[in-house]
Amino acid sequence: MAVVNAKKLKFSTLRGSFSETGINEFLRDLSFGRGQTAPVKGAEMPKISTTEPWDGKDGELPPEEDIDLSDVDLEKDEL
Question: Compositional bias of type Acidic residues: which residue ranges (predicted)?
Answer without folding.
Answer: 61-79
